[in-house]
Inverse folding.
């Protein structure tokens, strides 16, 4: 991956994640973690090389096809949660089904189910301002799960949380992985990475073994 | 299945309005003012026109008048027999006349000549009321029987100026002084809307005026009625019938035309205010565009998130376009409501029937919709062009 101005963010990265895996991508800041996440999440396209999600090659896809792939096959969990302020927890989760054309009633039923899975069924009518950071991140995880994605990408999901909440979020992700969800977690924290079954190291845009 | 259902789209469009209510309200005010102005400037003339039409229909548009052309030297005089000649025109149903023969009226014989009360003394044919659709408020009108005595009937303003509120049959009938002669007041008229000059008159019987005041029998105003479809035909031959030798000395008029002229004036004002409404709408549209532009800048992270959740460029575009339209149409709806209320209040004050032209209301809302589209296009395109990863990373 080369950015304008000649900065090479990723170089000769080859990574394969199989169904059901839980992978930690570990690296210091500036190592290219975010770029790798954006490329894996199809939010950005590589200048060279190829990316395949669930068997589909994305480099030549149109915006429409790529957007649909994101909506149907990939779930995102961000460090800053990225919940929409004016919407309740259940509406935030249901938004992940909106662009896939799921009907409103079905969206809400599935969103309720996802909130139940992260243990927040009783918070479904709350707006983000009324929830703690840990709760917000669990809503964001429910949103990433609700379309049953092939891959969940989590970018520093515990970075904005205190130790207790961070541990709870990590426990939740581990539990979801045991239930079958494929997860790639990006972090700069070795202690977090140590709790995840497979680890890859990223340094100066290159992958190294653990 | 990448189309968003219409109900969901409205929900998306309302999101920005719901979460930033004060700003949405302020930016929609311009549109609301424009649309309200539009409704008011079309509603008020339409209401006034209906009121005028009803008034004209009640008063009658089948009436004509003939009078000598003013300011001629020597003064134009209508022939004494002209009233009978007019009555013989086939479609004329009634013809009558009054004559101003230079007399003045006073309350007593001690009032000096300089005591001017601006009231005319008119000789009147006894069928005058029928020709002008007039009514007697108090007492009776002139007829052959009472004309054997010196009697007068007063117009409504004349009665008020001379100090007679009404006639009480139990009291002695009041008298007025005209040309060294006392006349008994036997009646007072209701106001005559289409001939307000008669309100300021003291009426004496045609023959009585000749008998006591040396009136020569030349009418100064002929009133006639015909049928509605014959008005123009009668108008065409009226001058030549009144004075066959000098038809150019005769001024023919239709009293209802004077009222009709009010319309033209109102329409001129209407065009001016319509222009102002247009400017208000333009400024309102710029306000909405500005709000949308800022909204897109502020919501870059939301846009990035929606892209991550599967929204394609078209879906982001349509969300912001919908928001712009929702904002404009809400402003437009508020404007229609405000305009209708303002028009209703004005009409109630004027005692007019309320008319809200459907075309201006529909036009206003359509205009607001169009403004919403125009104002939203550029911000929506900007939103859709944002790069998903960069939008998500923005602070």
């Amino acid at each position: 991956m080369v950015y304008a101005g000649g900065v090479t963010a990723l170089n000769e990265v080859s990574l394969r994640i199989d169904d059901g895996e839980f992978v930690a991508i570990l690296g210091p800041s500036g190592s290219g973690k975010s770029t790798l996440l954006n490329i894996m999440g199809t939010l950005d396209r590589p200048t060279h090389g190829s990316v395949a999600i669930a068997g589909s090659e994305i480099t030549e896809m149109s915006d429409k096809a790529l957007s649909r792939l994101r909506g149907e096959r990939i779930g995102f969990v961000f460090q800053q949660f990225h919940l929409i302020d004016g919407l309740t927890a259940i509406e935030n989760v249901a938004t992940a089904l909106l662009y896939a054309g799921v009907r409103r009633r079905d969206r809400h039923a599935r969103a309720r189910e996802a909130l139940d899975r992260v243990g927040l069924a009783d918070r479904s009518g709350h707006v983000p301002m009324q929830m703690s950071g840990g709760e917000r991140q669990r809503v964001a995880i429910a949103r990433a799960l609700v379309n049953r994605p092939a891959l969940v990408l989590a970018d520093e999901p515990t970075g904005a949380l205190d130790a207790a909440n961070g541990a709870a979020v990590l426990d939740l992700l581990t539990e979801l992985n045991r239930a079958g969800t494929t997860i790639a977690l990006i972090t700069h924290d070795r202690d977090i990475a140590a709790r995840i079954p497979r680890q890859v190291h990223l340094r100066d845009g290159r992958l190294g073994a653990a | 299945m990448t189309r968003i259902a219409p109900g969901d789209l409205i929900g998306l469009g309302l999101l920005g309005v719901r979460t930033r209510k004060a700003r949405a309200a302020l930016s929609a005010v311009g549109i609301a003012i424009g649309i309200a102005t539009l409704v008011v400037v079309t509603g008020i003339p339409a209401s006034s026109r209906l009121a005028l039409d009803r008034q004209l229909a009640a008063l009658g548009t089948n009436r004509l008048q003939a009078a000598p052309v003013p300011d001629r030297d020597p003064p134009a005089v209508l022939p004494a027999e002209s009233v009978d000649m007019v009555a013989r025109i086939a479609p004329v149903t009634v013809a009558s006349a009054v004559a101003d023969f230079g007399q003045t009226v006073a309350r007593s014989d001690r009032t000096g000549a300089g005591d001017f009360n601006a009231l005319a003394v008119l000789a009147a044919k006894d069928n005058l009321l029928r020709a002008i659709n007039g009514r007697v408020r108090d007492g009776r009108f002139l007829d052959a029987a009472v004309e054997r005595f010196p009697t007068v009937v007063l117009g409504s303003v004349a009665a008020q100026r001379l100090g007679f509120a009404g006639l009480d049959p139990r009291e002695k009938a009041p008298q007025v002084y005209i040309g060294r002669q006392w006349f008994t007041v036997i009646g007072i008229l209701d106001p005559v809307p289409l001939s307000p000059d008669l309100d300021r008159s003291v009426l004496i019987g045609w023959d009585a005026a000749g008998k006591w005041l040396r009136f020569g029998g030349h009418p100064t105003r002929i009133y006639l009625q015909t049928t509605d479809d014959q008005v123009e035909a009668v108008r065409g031959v009226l001058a030549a019938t009144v004075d066959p030798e000098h038809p150019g000395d005769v001024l023919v008029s239709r009293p209802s035309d004077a009222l009709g002229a009010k319309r033209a004036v109102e329409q001129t004002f209407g065009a001016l205010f319509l222009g102002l409404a247009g400017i208000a709408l333009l400024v309102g549209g710029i306000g909405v565009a500005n709000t949308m532009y800022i909204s897109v800048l502020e919501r870059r992270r939301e846009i990035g998130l929606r892209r991550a959740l599967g929204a394609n460029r078209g879906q982001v575009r349509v969300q912001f376009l919908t928001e712009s339209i929702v904002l404009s149409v809400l402003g437009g709806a508020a404007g229609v409501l405000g305009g209708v209320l303002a028009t209703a209040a004005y009409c109630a004050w004027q005692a007019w029937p309320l008319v809200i032209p459907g075309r201006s209301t529909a036009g206003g809302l359509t205009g607001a919709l169009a403004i919403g589209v125009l104002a939203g296009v550029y911000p929506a395109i900007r939103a859709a062009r944002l790069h998903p990863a960069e939008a998500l990373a923005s602070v």
The CA atoms of residues 189 and 233 of chain B lie 31 Å apart.
